[in-house]
Amino acid sequence: MTETNSGRVGALTAAGGAFLGAVAYVFGYATTYALTSSEIQNSGAQQLLELFTGESATWKAVGWVFYNAHFVDTEIPGLFGASRAINFVAEVEAFPTLLYVLPPVILLVSGVVVARSAGVTDAMDGAKAGASVLLGYSLLAVAGTTMFSIPVGQSATAEPDFVAAVLVAGVVYPAVFGTLGGVAASLVQSSRATISPQ
User: Fold this and answer.
1) Which residue ranges does the record assign to the DUF7978 domain (predicted)?
2) On the CB side of 164, how many CA atoms lie within 13 Å of its CA?
3) Residue 60: CA atoms inside 13 Å, Cβ hemisphere, count?
């Protein structure tokens, strides 16, 4: 493979990784919605939010839970201005702790898919391919902090902790688990290439 072709494959891999990162985020949110939305709709807190906001906030509250599954707290304004950090996955018994496994598994699989589609057999190339999911995932992780914000009163909002959402959910999770998936895929590809007959 020439250097030019290698560069083109690298660009295609990065674009595919960014796309898969965005898909991973949406799939993670959709799965969280399927697992938690009915419980959220029937909760007293949800009914209280609807009373304050005048609209159904279920889809936004599911977003909070999705960020909580990344160990990102939700900042809830208090009565006297002080906010409280809550992780609903940890505090609500009805939510399965299995939700904590969801983001890592989805990102691992995404890293595997990117590396396999690129056909990499070197661990370093696999790491780069897998890490490419970071761009798409992080962009949506940042956007989600605004999308899942709920105004409470005149000047307060309930929302995922912005700094943790950007750093932990947007950078650490896709970088670590996407990279691990890419490395694992490259090692499997390499071992298959080694044992296959020439």
Assistant:
1) 8-188
2) 16
3) 21
Cβ 4 vs Cβ 117: under 8 Å: no
Instruction: Please give the Cα distance from 137 to 167 (Å, whole number).
Output: 12
Is the predicted pLDDT of residue 142 greater than 60, yes or no? yes
- Tokens standing for 147? 């999308």
Q: Which pLDDT score is estimated for 116?
A: 93
Class of residue 6 by CB neighbours under 10 A (exposed 0-12, middle 13-18, buried 19+): exposed
Query: Beta-carbon neighbour count of residue 104 at 10 Å?
Result: 17
- Token pair for residue 185? 């895929």
**What whole-number percentage of the chain has pLDDT above 70?**
84
Strand, helix or coil for residue 76: strand
Q: Which residue has the tokens 């595997």?
A: 112
Q: Which helix (H) or strand (E) holds 18?
A: helix 3-41
Amino acid at 63: G
Give the global pTM.
0.88
Distant-in-sequence, close-in-space partners of 182: CB < 8 Å, separation ≥ 6: 111, 112, 114, 115, 120, 126, 127, 128, 129, 130, 131
Q: What are phi and psi of 165, to 5 degrees?
A: -60, -45
Question: Whose CA is closest to 106, among 61, 140, 157?
Answer: 140
Sketch the domain layout of the chain as residue ranges: 3-195
